[in-house]
Amino acid sequence: MMITESRTTYIYNSHQKCLAHHLDPNDLPASKEKLPDRVVEQKKRALDVTIAAARKFMTRLISDLDGTAVLICITDHEGYILEMYGDEEIKWQIESLGLCPGVRLEEEKVGTNSIEMALRMGRSAQLIGPDHFFRCLHETACFSVPFHSAGRISGTISMMMAAHHVSPYHLALLQSVVDSIDREVTAKKQNKKLLVLNQVLMENSRNGVILTDEEGNIVEINPYAENVLSSNKGELCNRHITEVAVIGEYMGSVLRGSQKYEDIEITLSNKTFLFDSFPIHDEFNQIIGVFGQFRDITDRLVLKRQLMLSEKLSAIGKISAGLAHEIRNPLTSIMGLLALLKEHFKPANPGQKDYFRIIFSELERIKNLVQQFVMMAKPDQNELIKTNVNVHTLMEDILALMESDFHSKHINVQYHPLYQAEMEIDKDKIKQVILNILQNALDAIDLDGNISVVIRQSQLDPGIEITIRDDGAGMDKDTLDKLATPFHSTKKYGLGLGLSMSYRIVELHKGRIKVESEHGKGTTFTIWLPEG
Q1: How far is it, in rounded angstroms, from Cα 156 to Cα 114?
Q2: What is the strand order of the sheet 512-518 is part of?
């Protein structure tokens, strides 16, 4: 409870209370109660930040007093002494009175004292000479200033010296020092909170974060950035930022020119990131470091590409629906009439037979292109009609269908049916996939090549693997990356729809297609289809 009475009134009333408690001013103050050492240590730990700051500032104050013998005393909010240091002679005299760490300074036991006075009045207090109740202390002066935490008094810092050394500025000086201690403790607690917050954010951020000092040396890096850069914090800290691939160039530029970078697309560890970097300034607008962060947008780009693919397929469907009816019907009529004409036509020039062959060949090619559009436009393209199918029998039918094509190019086909059980699949759609891949293998080989077809049970996931390998022309990396893209084709007359449809069909079966190829060394397609 705070007391608002004047200093003089407080001292008078305190002396009267001491007499009421049967204290004799001619005796020596003594307190028979003392806290156990472990309890004192607990109280000190609760105020460890304040006590540490007080040691620094009060040691400096003792030095500034230029040889004046001073004893410093720190108490908690209840008036228990936690720590005493300073002049050894004064300390010995005070301890001989029974005043030591663990003792509580209460009026009814140790008489009028500046510590309880400061705690009760809630402000700075001083007792000089006869202000003390006990005459043995009339040659001393004591100054006490309360310190605060979270808006409440947490204890006091006191200074004791000989009364004849007292000057008017001593209490003001102690008050100034305690104010400095309060500010430092507040700053340390705030910094501790910020440090904890910073650690939580840095440790759990899904962005890579790197900080440098004003020289460009790395001072902080979070775990996400360590993982992306494949280096640990110990390896990167204190190294110059320009030694870090890709982002080092940007952050070095920020350090040199104070410019900022925002949303720069970069590639790290085979992933795509957006990178930001800007300078860190102090209160004088001087650069004290550089901040850099990068966030993974790989999944976003994949989704964007999938959306674009979906939009393309939707556009194809709309176009194909009209083309199918407008082209296929007259085309069928033309091919039928030409067949009849060929049967009754007797050319005078034998070479004219080649004209019919070329015409039929080109019309057949147009028919195939239109058929691909029709397949893309089918309303049930995303629906599967699954039945139990013997994949071995299906493959035999497909190879028989393409036998003449293989024979015409002298291609040797090796078929290894290591799995001959039934699976639940959409027979027509999987047949279309295998035909597309085999046709690509056929087109990749000029003459006298080899194609290998293997059906086996998967060793990695439940299901089967269909592997189709050729020793044809192969593909470069750019072509591999665009295999599933509609309208992308390396063939002279290719439409670029076959493989994109094949990927979609396998995805509908919850399967996957893996492609390995090297330019000039052939290509391997592996189709994995799950069980059930």
Answers
A1: 10
A2: 412-417, 450-457, 463-470, 522-530, 512-518
DSSP 152-195: EEEEEEEEEEEGGG--THHHHHHHHHHHHHHHHHHHHHHHHHHH
DSSP 234-284: HHHTTSBGGGSTTHHHHHHHHHHH---EEEEEEEETTEEEEEEEEEEE-TT
pTM (2 decimals)? 0.47
How many helices and strands in the chain, by DSSP H and E? 17, 17
Helix (H) or strand (E) holding 371: helix 352-377
Buried b (16+ CB within 10 A) or exposed e, 371-382: ebbbbbbeeeee
> What is the CA 519 to chain-centroid distance, rounded?
38
Closest of 148, 171, 139, 140 to residue 158, by C-alpha: 171
Nearest to 525 by CA among 453, 477, 418: 453
Q: Which residue has the tokens 């609760």?
A: 46
pLDDT along the chain (532 residues), means of 10: 78 94 88 87 92 90 86 95 93 89 91 94 94 93 92 93 90 92 85 68 79 88 87 85 88 84 87 89 83 88 77 67 64 72 68 69 69 58 77 88 84 89 86 87 86 89 90 81 59 57 85 87 89 73
| Count of all residues that appear for the chain in the document | 532
Amino acid at 36: P
